[in-house]
Amino acid sequence: DIKGTSLRIILDSRGNKTVEATVILNSGAEGICSAPAGASTGATEVIPFRDGRAEESLNFFERNVRESLKGFNGFNQTGFDNLLKNIDGTENFSSMGGNVSTALSIALAKAVSKELGIPMYRYAGGNFRMKAPKPIGNVIGGGKHAINGTTFQEFLVSNDSSSFLEAIEVNALVHKRIGQKAKDIMKNVSIGVGDERAWVLSISDEQAMQLLKDSANEIAKEKKVKVYLGFDAAASSFYEKGKYVYKEKKRDQGEQIQYIIDAHKNYGFYYMEDPMDEADFEGHAEITKAIGKNALIVGDDLYTTNASRIRKGIETKATNGVLIKVNQIGTLTDTWDAVKTATSASMENVISHRSGETTDDFIAHLSLAFSSTFIKSGTIGGERLAKLNELVRLQEEIEH
Ligand code: PGA
Ligand code: ZN
């Protein structure tokens, strides 16, 4: 049973306040989890903090949550997650804050795993596979993660190396190569990185695509691996009054669909996340129909890890992939529900970090529990590598 829970405020990688929960069982087994934070959040995500403030959520926890969790059977993860929802009493965790429920829910799973003496991936979901996912990470960034970057939020890279260590190294090498090339192209211009440490360059989206392709090709040759290209357009973040607003021009729905299909054809993009606005299931479906056989179209803001939205995506054939972020839905149980819904329709899932992160590595474990095709967690930076390096360790354990 649960002996006690506590909650504290810590800082995330952007220097913003977030929450960290501790759950202690009667046996003394302890689980700690901190919640990340998004910048380009989906409209249908749960609310991260009560009144938008970590302090308000902490107060709510002290007043209404802590006592109610005492003595609860820790092995009943679903019951615990439902209890959190009942205490909250809203549809979107706006009383407690979805970051509080996320931290508590995952902290419980960690505590129980510890009590059982097994790693968390063997406990969470109960359907782990003995194969590491492929890392996918952003190397050029813009949108809401940067100042004056590209219109697309993320240009991503992945590769087919079966060694997870080599796979993350290849991604990091592409990141490095892009930096070197950018230095040559943009003489006497300062270059920086965005929230997830992808390069922020004042170039057009097409120039970014070419730079990505050239750099990836070079590294692929040098390291003798196949490199996959991707992007997260995060299209809702530049969708205004029915148009996709780029620096140079505006595109309507039909033009945006064609632009995405052309990007796939001209640059060989395999992974394409949120290419259309988050309300546009039909637009996504047109893209998937056109190129879904050769590419993974992934819904992030489109689904917000919500099983009923994923069901709508299945019915409308909107995408063949889904992004998974626990704090978009607020509990491990509902996240698992989203994954099962997607998997039952042969949709691939991609477990993901948020742009504001902590050093917590729980998504590394969930990537195995959920049999994720990819783990999206950047390419460099301590809070990104906390997850990736954990998978280097876990791969030793599962594949040997
Ligand atoms: P967020 O964005 O964490 O800032 O919401 C990441 C993404 O869109 O994948
Ligand atoms: Zn996204």
From TrEMBL:
<feature type="domain" description="Enolase C-terminal TIM barrel">
    <location>
        <begin position="129"/>
        <end position="400"/>
    </location>
</feature>
<keyword id="KW-0324">Glycolysis</keyword>
<feature type="binding site">
    <location>
        <position position="154"/>
    </location>
    <ligand>
        <name>substrate</name>
    </ligand>
</feature>
<feature type="binding site">
    <location>
        <position position="145"/>
    </location>
    <ligand>
        <name>substrate</name>
    </ligand>
</feature>
<keyword id="KW-0479">Metal-binding</keyword>
<feature type="binding site">
    <location>
        <position position="376"/>
    </location>
    <ligand>
        <name>(2R)-2-phosphoglycerate</name>
    </ligand>
</feature>
<feature type="binding site">
    <location>
        <position position="300"/>
    </location>
    <ligand>
        <name>substrate</name>
    </ligand>
</feature>
<feature type="binding site">
    <location>
        <position position="273"/>
    </location>
    <ligand>
        <name>substrate</name>
    </ligand>
</feature>
<keyword id="KW-0456">Lyase</keyword>
<dbReference type="Pfam" id="PF03952">
    <property type="entry name" value="Enolase_N"/>
</dbReference>
<dbReference type="InterPro" id="IPR000941">
    <property type="entry name" value="Enolase"/>
</dbReference>
<dbReference type="InterPro" id="IPR029017">
    <property type="entry name" value="Enolase-like_N"/>
</dbReference>
<keyword id="KW-0963">Cytoplasm</keyword>
<dbReference type="GO" id="GO:0004634">
    <property type="term" value="F:phosphopyruvate hydratase activity"/>
</dbReference>
<dbReference type="Pfam" id="PF00113">
    <property type="entry name" value="Enolase_C"/>
</dbReference>
<dbReference type="InterPro" id="IPR020809">
    <property type="entry name" value="Enolase_CS"/>
</dbReference>
<feature type="active site" description="Proton acceptor">
    <location>
        <position position="325"/>
    </location>
</feature>
<dbReference type="GO" id="GO:0000287">
    <property type="term" value="F:magnesium ion binding"/>
</dbReference>
<keyword id="KW-0460">Magnesium</keyword>
<feature type="binding site">
    <location>
        <position position="376"/>
    </location>
    <ligand>
        <name>substrate</name>
    </ligand>
</feature>
<feature type="binding site">
    <location>
        <position position="300"/>
    </location>
    <ligand>
        <name>Mg(2+)</name>
    </ligand>
</feature>
<dbReference type="InterPro" id="IPR020811">
    <property type="entry name" value="Enolase_N"/>
</dbReference>
<feature type="active site" description="Proton donor">
    <location>
        <position position="196"/>
    </location>
</feature>
<keyword id="KW-0964">Secreted</keyword>
<feature type="binding site">
    <location>
        <position position="325"/>
    </location>
    <ligand>
        <name>(2R)-2-phosphoglycerate</name>
    </ligand>
</feature>
<feature type="binding site">
    <location>
        <position position="153"/>
    </location>
    <ligand>
        <name>(2R)-2-phosphoglycerate</name>
    </ligand>
</feature>
<dbReference type="GO" id="GO:0000015">
    <property type="term" value="C:phosphopyruvate hydratase complex"/>
</dbReference>
<feature type="domain" description="Enolase N-terminal">
    <location>
        <begin position="2"/>
        <end position="124"/>
    </location>
</feature>
<protein>
    <recommendedName>
        <fullName>Enolase</fullName>
        <ecNumber>4.2.1.11</ecNumber>
    </recommendedName>
</protein>
<feature type="binding site">
    <location>
        <position position="355"/>
    </location>
    <ligand>
        <name>(2R)-2-phosphoglycerate</name>
    </ligand>
</feature>
<dbReference type="InterPro" id="IPR020810">
    <property type="entry name" value="Enolase_C"/>
</dbReference>
<comment type="pathway">
    <text>Carbohydrate degradation; glycolysis; pyruvate from D-glyceraldehyde 3-phosphate: step 4/5.</text>
</comment>
<comment type="similarity">
    <text>Belongs to the enolase family.</text>
</comment>
<feature type="binding site">
    <location>
        <begin position="352"/>
        <end position="355"/>
    </location>
    <ligand>
        <name>substrate</name>
    </ligand>
</feature>
<dbReference type="GO" id="GO:0005576">
    <property type="term" value="C:extracellular region"/>
</dbReference>
<feature type="binding site">
    <location>
        <position position="232"/>
    </location>
    <ligand>
        <name>Mg(2+)</name>
    </ligand>
</feature>
<comment type="function">
    <text>Catalyzes the reversible conversion of 2-phosphoglycerate (2-PG) into phosphoenolpyruvate (PEP). It is essential for the degradation of carbohydrates via glycolysis.</text>
</comment>
<dbReference type="GO" id="GO:0006096">
    <property type="term" value="P:glycolytic process"/>
</dbReference>
<feature type="binding site">
    <location>
        <position position="354"/>
    </location>
    <ligand>
        <name>(2R)-2-phosphoglycerate</name>
    </ligand>
</feature>
<feature type="binding site">
    <location>
        <position position="273"/>
    </location>
    <ligand>
        <name>Mg(2+)</name>
    </ligand>
</feature>
<dbReference type="InterPro" id="IPR036849">
    <property type="entry name" value="Enolase-like_C_sf"/>
</dbReference>
<dbReference type="GO" id="GO:0009986">
    <property type="term" value="C:cell surface"/>
</dbReference>
